[in-house]
Amino acid sequence: MSRLRWTELPQVRCPLAPISTPPLTCDPLDQHHSRIDSRMDYRMNSFATLPLPDFRKAVRSWIAEHAPQGLAEVHDWNRPVIGAMDTEPFDRAERHPLYREWERRLLAAGLVCPQWPVEYGGSGWTPDRAAAFVEECHRAGVPRVTRHMGEDLVAPALLAHGTEEQKAYFLPRIRTGEHRYCQGFSEPDSGSDLASLRTRGRVDGDRVVVSGQKTWTSLAELATHMFTLCRTEPGSSRHRGISYVLIELDDPGVQIRPIPQITGRSEFCEVFLDEVPAPLFNVVGGLGDGWRVAMTTLGAERGGKASTQRLGFEREVTDLLRLLTDQGRMRDPLVRRQLALALGQVEVMRMQGDRVLAGVMSGRLDRGLDPSTGKLMWSEFQRELGDLLARVLGPEFVVRPDGAGFPLDEWQDLFLASRADTIYAGTSQIQRNLIAERVLGLPRGEH
After folding, report:
1. pTM (predicted TM-score)
2. Dihedral sign, CA of 414, 305, 421, 260?
3. In the annotation, is 270 catalytic?
4. How far apart are CA 228 and CA 433, in angstroms?
C-alpha cells in the first residue's frame, strides 16, 4: 500500500552510525519553506534555571515573540485528538507553511523534545518546566510540536536502556521527525497478556530476522519504523527470551493492512512481518532482555503527560457546556448535575497529574499505582463523557450529518472513538489487576 514519505533530501553519513544503519538526513523538513533567520536567537537553555513562575513568564514572552504571525488561526490547535478520534484536520494543519516554520524555530531552540538532555538536542528541562511549556503553548493557542510515539515511548526506553551509540544515532532522528514510530506489541492472541507473544526473532550473524503478526497498530501506515517485541530465544516462555527491536517498515517483508473502525476511519492496522531483518544495533537493552525495556515503554504510555493531559478533557467539557447552554438544555437541573460531575472529574485528573509530576520530580513516583490509575481515570472519563453526550443530546445525536461516505460531527466522533479508550494501552481490567497485585498486594486469581 502507499505510504506518506518525506521529500528526498541530501544526506551525509553519521560517524556514529554502524554500516548497516541508514545515513542521517541533515534536514528532515521540506526545503521549499523558508530557512530560520540565523540572526535571531531562538535558544531557551538559559531559562531552565529560573524559578518556575519566572520561567513561565519567560516562556510566555518567547512564544509571543517567536510564534509566526497567523499560526494560531491556521487550526484550532487546542482541539483534543485523543485515542481513535479523527486526526485528519490536525494532519492537514501540520503541512501548513506557518506550522513548518514554527517547527523549525522550535528545533533551533531545543524545544522539540525539550525534556531530553542537551547533548541529544533537547533543553534538559525538568518535568515541571516541560509541563509549563505545554500549558503556555495551550494558553497561546499554538501547537507544541511533538514526535508522538518516538518521543513519548521509544525515547524513554533508549535513554534508560540504550547504549551511548544507540542514543546518539536514534534520538536525533526522532527529534527531527526523520524516524516516525508505531508500536508493535499486541498480537491477535497476545493483547493484554503480552508475555504470550508469538512473533519470532531469529539471530543471524549481526542481525535479527523478525517474523510474525502485530495488530491494533496505530497509524502504522504513516510510520517509518516500528518498535516491536519478539521472542529471540527458542523454547523460552513468558517474560524470558523476549527482545525489543527497532525495525524499518519500508522492508519488502512488511505488509500493512488498515483495520476499519466504527468511526469510518482506519487508524489501527495489522502488520505482517515476513523475515524482516534488523541489525543487532537496533536491539535495545540486549538480546533476551526486552521485557524490562518494554516495561519502561508501557509505564511511559500509561503515565505519560499526566500533568497536562487534562487540558484536552477540560476543553471537551467546556465546549459541551457551551453547546448545551446555546440549546437551552442547561436549564435542566439533571443536565447541570451531570456537567458538574464531569468538571469535577477533570479537576481530579488535574490533581492526580500534579501528584504524578511531584512524584517524578522527587524521585518517589509509585510506578505501580500512578500509571495505572492515570490510565483508568482518563480512559473511563472519556467513555463516560461519550455516554453523557448520548443522554443529554437526545435522539438527534444518532442522526449523522449529510454527505458522502460516513460523515460524523465532532460529538458523534468522540462517542464512537471513546469505545476504544478503555481497551488500548492496557484494558481497564488489566489496570485494576495491576493495582490489585502490585499496590494492594492481593494474590493473583483472587480479585
Report:
1. 0.80
2. positive
3. no
4. 24
